[in-house]
Each structure stands twice: as C-alpha cells, then as structure tokens.
Amino acid sequence: MIKSEICGMLGIQYPVFQGGMAWIADGKLAAAASEGGGLGIIAAGNASGDYVREQIRIAKSLTEKPIGVNIMLLSPFADEIAQVVIEEGVKVVTTGAGNPSKYMESWKDAGIKVIPVVASVALAKLMTRLGASALIAEGGESGGHVGELTTMVLVPQICDATNLPVIAAGGIADGRGVAAAFMLGACGVQMGTRFLSAEECSIHPVYKEKIIKAKDLCTMVTGKRLGHPVRSLRTQFARDYSKAEYGGMSDEELEALGGGALRLAVQEGDNKKGCFLSGQIAALVKKEQPAADIIKEVMEEAEPILLRASQWVK
C-alpha cells in the first residue's frame, strides 16, 4: 500500500484529497471520502457560515475520521467561515482563490492544519514562511478557478521551492495520474472532477451524466478578462459567456451574467444558464461509483505503475 508523510500528518489511510468544489462538496460527500480512507473536504464556496457549520455537523454525524473545509477567500463570508472552522473543531483547512495570511495565526493556534492551494512558486514560498502544514500545487487542467501553469510544470517547481509536503492537483483521475504526481515529487493527490461521479455526490443527474459522457476537448476557460479564469464544460452557457466576455459587455454585466450559474448547474442541471465546472480529465471518468471505491481504485492502479518504474533503474 502506498503511504506518505501526509497520511501520518492527517491521520488518513490513503494520500488522496477529495477536492473542495463549491456547492458540490457537501458534508455527505466529504464524509464518504473520509470513510473511504482519504481526506473528505467540504467546500465553503460563496455559502454563509451557517451553511458551512451545518455541513460540518452532517459530516461529523457520518464519520469519526478527519474532514477538511475548503475556504474560497474571495467569498464575502470568508471572515465568518474562518471562525466557524475554529468553533467546530475542524482539523484541516484548505484555501483557494487568494492569500490566507490574515487567518493563519488563529487557525494554527486552534490546532488546524492549514494547506493552501498554490498556483505559483511565489505564493508557495510565502505560505511556507507563514507556517502552512502542506501545500496543494494545482495546475490549470483542474476545474473551477485555474492558474496559468500545468500540473506537470507546477508540481516540481513547488517541490523545489518548499520543504513542506506537496499535494498535486489538476488533471488527476486514475492511478497513472497518481503515479505521475509521485514521480514529480508530490506525496499525495487531490481530485475534484473524479468525485463528481461519486454515488454520494448530490449534483443534478444531468451534471453527472455530462461528466460521464465527456470527451477529450470537453472543457473551456472563461473569465480571464475579470482576472478569475474558470474551467468548465463547453456548454451553451460557457460559449455565451465567452462571447459576452469579448463582445463589449461591461465588467458589472459580466459579473451578473455569471452570478448563480454554478448553483443552476448543480441543483437544476440547467444547460442554458448553468456553469458546469469540470477539469480536463472528465473524459477519464467512466461510471458512477462510491467515493470509497474511487479512492481504493486509483491507489490500487498506482501501486504497480510505481513498482514497474522502480525496476527500470538498474
């Protein structure tokens, strides 16, 4: 069985994080991933503190294993949720879409392991200096908010820039991706899109079907003009947004156009107005299955690949 330092640090069986996907990664999915031996992560997204507190308590009612919360730092509720995770005794916090510096001291004082998502060497170095426990190096192949560098390029540079454990994310969906991440220097992986097919994932059936039927060129990136690029499935909404983005629409109108689009996809499966977040690896997602089986499957696939790789060196 593949073990790494992140397993001992967090008390998990497998070095696999279930990504914190806004309005998708709820308490039920996080608990299922944690029960399966990985680290289940509740996504705060743009939700209120009350919603996040409720999801934490749901997860705790379903598992006694560690769970995490992902805080999207652009959220208007970020300050509120930063306090909720302390009050609820969350063991791990991951952060995205920003710099968590202002919260680091209080989280560390509460005994929380802080694991920021980083998309650049500069941010990795800053988070290392501020006392992060580990880092998630997320390449632009991922769904949702994305950076410029690919996982293949980013992960080794982050590993060279820090002495912290590095979790690779972006473009990982099976054992080959896990093995590649370890070869690049990571000690674990985070998968988001792969868990959209989990039985415990409560997205609308239309969303889940789109992921399972996706092809290689199924995604596109929008939002670069506003400085917050997002990768999603190539739907009618995504194409319409892309046209509006470079068609003279004001920033305020663009913000309004995207407002609530993810919730429409998650809850209603609305193809015309919904934004279906997805990473580039959606084409590798073939079926619906329990979250625990996803984790076990990718780790069992990775092990013989890594063993074969070790035999190539004589």
SSE blueprint and pairings:
Layout: H1 5-10, E1 16-18, H2 27-35, E2 40-43, H3 49-62, E3 67-72, H4 78-87, E4 92-96, H5 101-109, E5 113-118, H6 121-129, E6 135-138, E7 144-145, H7 151-161, E8 166-169, H8 175-183, E9 188-191, H9 205-212, E10 219-222, E11 230-233, H10 236-245, H11 251-258, H12 261-268, H13 291-311
Helix pairs in contact: 2-3, 3-4, 8-13
Short key terms for the protein model shown above:
3-stranded antiparallel beta sheet, alpha/beta, globular, single chain, 13 helices
Description:
There is one protein chain. The protein is an alpha/beta fold and 314 residues long. The chain is 42% helix and 15% strand. It has 13 helices and 11 strands. Strands 1-9-8-6-5-4-3-2 form an 8-stranded parallel sheet. Strand 8 (166-169), helix 8 and strand 9 (188-191) form a beta-alpha-beta unit. The chain is globular. It starts with a helix and ends with a helix. The model has no long low-confidence stretch (mean pLDDT 93).
Structural class estimated from helices and strands: alpha/beta
H/E element string? Answer: HEHEHEHEHEHEEHEHEHEEHHHH
Q: Give the beta-strand count.
A: 11
Counting H and I runs of at least 4 residues, what is the number of helices? 13
Q: From the structure provided, what is the oligomeric state, counting identical versus distinct chains?
A: single chain
Question: Low-confidence stretches at least 5 residues in length (pLDDT < 50)?
Answer: none
Rg, nearest Å: 18 Å
How would the global form be characterised? globular
Report the mean per-residue pLDDT as an integer: 93
Biggest beta sheet summary: 8 strands, parallel
Q: For the terminal residues, how far apart are their CA atoms?
A: 23 Å
Strand content: 5-15%
The strand order across the widest sheet is 1-9-8-6-5-4-3-2
Percent helix: 40-55%
